[in-house]
Amino acid sequence: MSRYFTQEHEWIDVDGEIATVGITDFAQGQLGDIVFVELPEKGRKVAKGDDVAVVESVKAASDVYAPVSGEVVEANGALEGDPALVNGDAEGEGWFFRLRLADAAELEGLMDRAAYDAFVAGL
Amino acid sequence: MRYLPLTDADRQAMLDRIGVATIDDLFSDVPAAARLDGPIEGLPGHAGELAVERHMAALARRNMAAGDGPFFLGAGAYRHHVPASVDHLIQRGEFLTAYTPYQPEIAQGTLQILFEFQTQVARLLGCDVANASMYDGSTACWEAIGMARRITRRGKALLSSGLHPHYVSVARTMATFTGDELVHRAPSLDVAGDGEDLIAALDADTSCVVVQYPDILGRINDLSVLAEKAHEIGALLIAVVTEPVALGACRAPGEMGADIVVGEGQSLGVGLQFGGPYLGLFATRQKYLRQMPGRLCGETVDAEGKRGFVLTLSTREQHIRREKATSNICTNSGLCALAFSIHLTLLGEKGLRDLALLNHARAAQVAERLAALPGIRLLNHSFFNEFTIVLEKDARQVVRDLADRGVLAGVSLGRLYPDEANIARGLVVAVTETVTDEDIDALVSGLKEVLA
């Protein structure tokens, strides 16, 4: 399983044709206490770059974009009752949604861990 | 700052700068047919202040105001007695503002009253949460339809034939821009209403069913079954209350399963005015809070642990979420909400109940007297302070004839539904605590004469 990152501070785990998407630990730290996450409905088809979810903290409300195209197969229902999961474990339990990849080639433009860390260090 | 009128040269310089030849060019978007091509015919150019005042006063005397005689008009706007103490209290400096707070936390009095207002509205409508108010009942109704679309992600709203036609018309205007499909027909003069038809029309595309309670003809129906059927298919039930005093006597829609309850708050504290400004009430279930439009005031503690009030959940609102906000309305009817809250506070729970019982008793008294007259049939089996009678002739003309006798007898269905000839004999009669025995006698004898 490989993990990718975007410049919008999302992480993507790819397992076969299923991609799990969340926001990075750096992103949750910038947002502060997260109070609400609005998740996409199952079955929704999204194109790369579409806004798919909303994450709301005490400081701001931000859109979360689809890092790749695909169909939403699952959303993390645990976030509805406990949005602070994103603060506690952004890159694990705090995942947002899962997509069935439409085009695996879209992954090629994304960053790996080292590239993302360098990107964040340069901000 | 001194006021110095512009010179022609100033105007010309500004026109040159923005690249148009004349001021009229700035109005080129207004269709030619709607533009005036000269002075208004028959309107004198000018007159002295005293002469204008005399002229206007003479015109105003030709009006028949609500307090001038027997008054039985309702259909969405109700004449109630608003105690003078309301007007006095709303002018206190801690409260008085016409508008929503923009630097909110500095105005703790305003926020506290909004917090209390929300609590009152939520309890009255039988819901978990209420917002700090909207423009009026019709805009609140439309906002509820939009909210149901966001929650269900469906775009077809079933509007009951008992929903006020003006509310339907506001929804139609707004739906032009959102693409929502609105299913609606005019009411028929039957006693039951269209609950069964609405249930039959529910399908997988239905976002919501919108019913009025009591409805435009004054009928009161249990909403529980409709709520249950709507929920079975994943749609929401929206209830619209145009006469909140009714909830002093009738079961709240939220308790019968309505997901969103909206209403017109004018009856309490606000008065008829000239048709506005009025007060939109909006309440819903806790679980739909994030999709609720409008401002919301919350209780908190300050750095020293003292109770305080804030505007909260503002991320739903336009100034933060821009085009993705739950609504393009991020204001509230501050002054009307204040008056509503103070009037309701002065009444108290028992006072509201007494007021409601008084309204109903008066209305029942009038209904009984009218039903005994030849040529009049009482439509309703149930009503609060408003009911519909069916005459043997066009009700619009009857209302006109009674107005000429100094009695405002009610709102004719011909006026509300000018295209529906088959219900033109219906007359909606509202009776509040302001109606006296003399008023009732005047209505009864007037109708006798006109219908003879």
What do you see in this structure?
The complex is a heterodimer of chains A (123) and B (452). Chain A is an alpha+beta fold. Chain A has one domain: RNA polymerase II/Efflux pump adaptor protein, barrel-sandwich hybrid domain (OB fold (Dihydrolipoamide Acetyltransferase, E2P)), CATH 2.40.50.100. Chain A is 20% helix and 37% strand. In chain A, the strands form two sheets. In chain A, strands 1-2-3-9-8-5 form a six-stranded antiparallel beta sheet. Chain A has a three-stranded antiparallel beta sheet with strand order 4-6-7, with no helix packed on it. The radius of gyration of chain A is 13 Å and the shape is globular. The termini of chain A are far apart. Chain B folds into two domains: 119 residues, Aspartate Aminotransferase, domain 1; 260 residues, Type I PLP-dependent aspartate aminotransferase-like (Major domain) (Aspartate Aminotransferase, domain 2). Chain B has 13 helices and 13 strands. In chain B, the strands form three sheets. In chain B, strands 1-7-6-5-4-2-3 form a seven-stranded mixed beta sheet, sandwiched between helices. A four-stranded antiparallel beta sheet of chain B has the order 10-11-13-12. In chain B, strand 8 and strand 9 form a beta hairpin. In chain B, helix 3 runs antiparallel to helix 10, helix 4 packs parallel to helix 10 and helix 5 crosses helix 6. Chains A and B meet through loops of A and loops of B.
